[in-house]
Amino acid sequence: MGKQNDGITPVSDEFKLVGFSNFVRSNPRSDRFPVRRFHHVEFWCTDATNASRRFSWGLGMPIVAKSDLSTGNATHASYLCRSGDLCFLFTAPYSPSIAASEGLNPSSTASLPSFSYSACVAFAVKHGLAVRAIAIEVEDADAAFHISVAQGARPVSSPVVLDGTATIAEVHLYGDVVLRYVSYKTPTSDHDNSSPDSWFLPRFKPTDEVSSFPLDFGIRRLDHAPGNVPELGPAVSYVKRFTGFHELAEFTKDEVGTDESGLNSVMLANNNEMVILPMSEPVFGTKRRSQIQTFLDHNEGPGVQHLALMSEDIFRTLREMRKRSTVGGFEFMPPPPPTYYRNLKGRVGDVLTDEQIEECEELGIMVDRDDEGTLLQIFTKPVGDRPTLFLEIIQRLGCMLKDDHRKLYQKGGCGGFGKGNLSELFKSVEEYEKTLEGRRVAGLASA
């Protein structure tokens, strides 16, 4: 449990929160090594088959690649869900006796060199269904690893070259979560998109699920991956020091909380602002315990709080997801009250049509904007048994720029991160937590 303070005062001399109102956004392009994009997110679990199929069905992400007994991997089962550039990898351990019975070193058959049976089992028991690795594609994973360690990062897995085509390495991020570096010997633009051992990682084989049962709800990439930590100052200073990432935004409890609870938060981003790693800490002295503290308790420490998934058409994505909410998909947090949508026309009527605003109300989508663009967003309930990891579906409107090749792209963080919606989200989470508390109290009373 972190050191308690007044919720605003930072606990590290290297870091000082100024809050959203006083924060001046700038991009010093201070990365310590070239970072390109999010590559994948890996979940450690006890049953990769069922976890991957649930996410595939609920998010419209076909299972496109695998590494398991059928591919010669007697160490772990790993299944890859993919939609656009978004890749979710689900990994679970096989019994070590399987490889041993064949006279093999268990690690020799693994497709992921950092995998450990004991670590995976301990991780799943401690955290439940949770994110183990946030992987980013870098220009040179070997160089990124050694630069990071030289700047204070805790090494987890030294660089390993896989089949002469890709390099993978890991450093500690927070809690039991690692930041994984991936790089390729040849440019990704030259890769064979039909072969996962080329565009993803070697030793993975394609499945036939894309052609046999196509799924696509319009989700295209990971926008940001927020984590919760006990103390924001040391965590932010640590990550900034070894990555060189800059601050993209800040929020304090007085700006985004409710009368009952709140948080302090900082968003870190790389040079092109396509890799965004927000972090939040709990605040104390409020009527209710911080939702961040609830996460830390149930997760037994720091971890990835949620994953923000970018959609090219959030209305289509939400309609498909809601069809499956109660039949193996994901349920959503309760929507804001009708007054929220009655006031919406005055805020974003120049961006969304009346029909789109009505559709936002129908689907429970919240809308926010900054001086550059507009953000549409909605949050799921926790995806597992514990009130920890959840998903955010977003779409950003505006902020279109041209790169050096005159190709259009959207500026990272366009429309902000829902500052104007966070109070509504907090109220919704508070009401959700109250229902859980009520059931728990009723259960104790009847025991």
From TrEMBL:
<dbReference type="GO" id="GO:0005737">
    <property type="term" value="C:cytoplasm"/>
</dbReference>
<dbReference type="InterPro" id="IPR037523">
    <property type="entry name" value="VOC_core"/>
</dbReference>
<feature type="binding site">
    <location>
        <position position="392"/>
    </location>
    <ligand>
        <name>Fe cation</name>
    </ligand>
</feature>
<dbReference type="InterPro" id="IPR005956">
    <property type="entry name" value="4OHPhenylPyrv_dOase"/>
</dbReference>
<dbReference type="InterPro" id="IPR029068">
    <property type="entry name" value="Glyas_Bleomycin-R_OHBP_Dase"/>
</dbReference>
<dbReference type="GO" id="GO:0046872">
    <property type="term" value="F:metal ion binding"/>
</dbReference>
<keyword id="KW-0560">Oxidoreductase</keyword>
<feature type="domain" description="VOC">
    <location>
        <begin position="221"/>
        <end position="381"/>
    </location>
</feature>
<keyword id="KW-0408">Iron</keyword>
<keyword id="KW-0963">Cytoplasm</keyword>
<comment type="similarity">
    <text>Belongs to the 4HPPD family.</text>
</comment>
<keyword id="KW-0585">Phenylalanine catabolism</keyword>
<dbReference type="InterPro" id="IPR041736">
    <property type="entry name" value="4OHPhenylPyrv_dOase_N"/>
</dbReference>
<dbReference type="InterPro" id="IPR041735">
    <property type="entry name" value="4OHPhenylPyrv_dOase_C"/>
</dbReference>
<dbReference type="GO" id="GO:0003868">
    <property type="term" value="F:4-hydroxyphenylpyruvate dioxygenase activity"/>
</dbReference>
<feature type="domain" description="VOC">
    <location>
        <begin position="37"/>
        <end position="184"/>
    </location>
</feature>
<comment type="pathway">
    <text>Cofactor biosynthesis; prenylquinone biosynthesis.</text>
</comment>
<keyword id="KW-0479">Metal-binding</keyword>
<keyword id="KW-0223">Dioxygenase</keyword>
<keyword id="KW-0677">Repeat</keyword>
<keyword id="KW-0828">Tyrosine catabolism</keyword>
<dbReference type="GO" id="GO:0006559">
    <property type="term" value="P:L-phenylalanine catabolic process"/>
</dbReference>
<feature type="binding site">
    <location>
        <position position="224"/>
    </location>
    <ligand>
        <name>Fe cation</name>
    </ligand>
</feature>
<dbReference type="GO" id="GO:0006572">
    <property type="term" value="P:L-tyrosine catabolic process"/>
</dbReference>
<comment type="pathway">
    <text>Amino-acid degradation; L-phenylalanine degradation; acetoacetate and fumarate from L-phenylalanine: step 3/6.</text>
</comment>
<protein>
    <recommendedName>
        <fullName>4-hydroxyphenylpyruvate dioxygenase</fullName>
    </recommendedName>
</protein>
<feature type="binding site">
    <location>
        <position position="306"/>
    </location>
    <ligand>
        <name>Fe cation</name>
    </ligand>
</feature>
